[in-house]
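Q: Can someone sanity-check these two? First one:
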Amino acid sequence: MAITDWPAAERPREKLIELGAEALSDAELLAIFLRVGVTGKSAVDLARDLLTKFGCLNGVFAATEHELSQVHGIGPSKYVQLQAIFEMSRRALAEQLQSRDVLNSPQAVRDYLVLKLGSLTKEVFLVLFLDTQNRLVASEEMFSGSLSETSVYPREVVKRALHHNAASLIFAHNHPSGIAQQSQADELLTKQLKQALALMDVRVLDHFIVAGNHTLSFSERGLV
């Protein structure tokens, strides 16, 4: 059955107007983006197919053009549109962090980090450089691969902190395994970075581990 044949209260567009975007499921939000389905499937059915295949919205956004094209009804134009929406979301969150104290916006920080790192298939070490008002100055992916205290160089982090005239930093790295749990190596790395930056009077506010849609805060666990 086509969505136009559904009761008005169940149609994603009408539901969004009536109740707000937060009332819609992931499939309903994705269906509004898709606009139309394919023969025998509504836009919501097609959206559910995408979420089933890629696991979640982050998985859909992270899919390559080739991977998306394996789903009937999804072509290059949809891939381009999805990438544009994903990048706009990241930039909108970055703008929030640039205009306010990140310590007063913990969820915005988490959302930004999930969008940046949650869908990556390799480990990436990200640094958020903050000014004296704890506002975002820059965000840089500094190292990638298998991260450890020997592969992340404190002197390079210090150099970039001085370049940005940063007063404090937030670290983040992802666990492609999907497990948001710190290791001893993660704790040792954080300690070494904190010590190196303290010599330059630069504070470390937190270190996040991102695993899919989940985050772990070292600060909340008393590890910073």
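And here is the second, same format, sequence then tokens:
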Amino acid sequence: MAKMTLEQLRKLREEKKGEMDKREVEGKNIQIIVGMGTCGIAAGAKQTFEEIIREVDANGLAAQVVIRQTGCMGLCHVEPTVEVVMPDMPDTIYGRVDGAIAKEIVVRHVLGKALLENHIYDRPAVDIVKQ
């Protein structure tokens, strides 16, 4: 293995630090949780997860958003599933989330604070949704 220069080591340290910062939960108040059970993975949850990461990074939200994985959410018939938990919005589970819908979740739900009505599979009670 070739030796690395000091500059290469610094660059590598910054890259890895950025990756580790994404995993930090301290001070972040928005969670995007992707169902990564066997059924979710078979339905494309890995691609959904990767698209959410790309979109969060593209919109400069990494300091506010925690992107997590979980097992099966019990909605196998609509995998991949994504739950969004954030202040001033009801906890919402979206189903059949492909890359395009993942991008919409970040842009419309997280940034725009609007529900994606056509993709909600665990609908919040009407009395907690502000009209």
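A (reply): Looked at the second one. Residues 27-128 form a domain with the Glutaredoxin fold (CATH 3.40.30.10). Helices lie at 6-23, 38-43, 45-58, 99-111.
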